[in-house]
């Protein structure tokens, strides 16, 4: 689907009117589901996700002997709501893209959660995607961070994630190439982009996924803009968590 | 469900201690690959790659199918991966293992999504007939660096393969037997290769071409696919401890060097194979001195 991105060259404004380094509106809530051990609702522009956490709880029998017993196992399930995309289509359960996403999220949190405190147990993350409009993996990681904090599972640091694109995929347009932060669905289809997640310090990359062809000269500005975006998101997540904590202390939330 | 035996604590500690002293257990340098061996089968499109003890065979085949309705001008290209118990007792038949999903996704992103194979050239009659090129990746022996070896074998097999020639007369399509007309090479737009970095000691030690034991002990990995022009097709750093952004960028430069080596190797081996097959063309074949 060719999309006219030439207006960017003229005004340096993107399709939705943002500048290159602007994030979309982020909105988040914690403890949205009473039944879950931890839950969150996360919006990144029009990408909307509900995340619930169950656990740490006893390992289900059956999968018993398989996993390592000395630390908790993290299981992730991503569900796409039928109405989340442009057209209503059912995804197969064993879709490889989804299972890759689940693996990415699970293994990202394996490095930040203190899983060794919960031997013989499982932490299950359920991500329900209500609306997709770009930066899906990044939004999932952010939503999961909030839900895991709400569940009270000890972690070394938040994981904050975002996406970055570049306006030129080849080296010959060197001076015109701008990195763009936090893509929406249309930009994602058109431009080469990467998803970057950071935790444990300013320029520490926790996960990095790039799926489209891009020249290696473009990568450095993309990563640095991405890390900058991650630290902005980290600040927002921190604000949400502190505000929620204050409410809990004041007894407004159960 | 079977799974890979965990290395003992002593084995792990020994390996990590050695790495701290800048020694790898098999005496290689940190950025050194094991012996790379690439061989082709008698048929076109069969390639076997070996990295040390890791062995992967890829077989490319094609058939004529009906073109899909939404992609009228494109042929079909699929990659199927199989991890069978022959590779390692940890793999089971029929069960979709996490490792298998990741391997096939990485190959898919490296070769298919980056447009390495020009699928438009596989179209015979728009909307009606096209070639379906199928690559079957069989892992025969697993000793680490599966993705790197599979990618190497896959690219080599695709470059080696020749599809049958055809002729279109109005609505009629005639596919020629290889004996009737010389089969044609697939048109490749670029040759991407994958290089996996395993890291240890908080990202300060980066190893290329890890063996299985090294893979089991590592803190995390970064998989990078690129071609010799420095175009990155895919980066995947799923798991493991966070690393510095700078060291990821350094990996790119190392990966580029290695990709250039792979590229040369594949081309040299293909040339070698071509020479071996070349018996002197049709004239030599038709000579009366040949055995009947």
Write a short abstract of this structure.
The complex is a heterodimer of chains A (254) and B (292). Chain A is an alpha+beta fold and 254 residues long.
Describe the protein's architecture and organization.
Chain A: Its main location: cytoplasm. Chain A: Residues 22-154 form the Exoribonuclease phosphorolytic domain. Chain A: Pfam families: RNase_PH. The complex is a heterodimer of chains A (254) and B (292). Chain A is an alpha+beta fold and 254 residues long. Chain A has one domain: 2-Layer Sandwich (Ribosomal Protein S5, domain 2), CATH 3.30.230. Helix content of chain A is 29%, strand content 27%. Chain A has five helices and ten strands, in the order H-E-E-E-E-H-E-H-E-E-H-E-E-E-H. In chain A, the strands form two sheets. In chain A, strands 1-2-3-5-4 form a five-stranded mixed sheet, with helices on one face. Chain A is globular and about 55 Å long. The N and C termini of chain A lie far apart (48 Å). In chain A, 44% of the residues are buried. Chain B is an alpha+beta fold and 292 residues long. Chain B has a single domain (35-291), classed as Ribosomal Protein S5, domain 2 (2-Layer Sandwich). In chain B, 30% of the residues lie in helices and 30% in strands. Chain B contains six helices and 15 strands. In chain B, strands 1, 2, 3, 4, 5 and 6 form a six-stranded mixed sheet that branches. In chain B, strands 12-11-13-14 form a four-stranded antiparallel sheet, sandwiched between helices. In chain B, helix 2 (98-113) packs across helix 3 (146-160) and helix 3 (146-160) runs parallel beside helix 5 (245-277). Chain B starts with 8 loop residues before the first helix and ends in a 7-residue tail after the last helix. Strand 9 (204-210) of chain A pairs antiparallel with strand 15 of chain B, so a sheet runs across the interface.
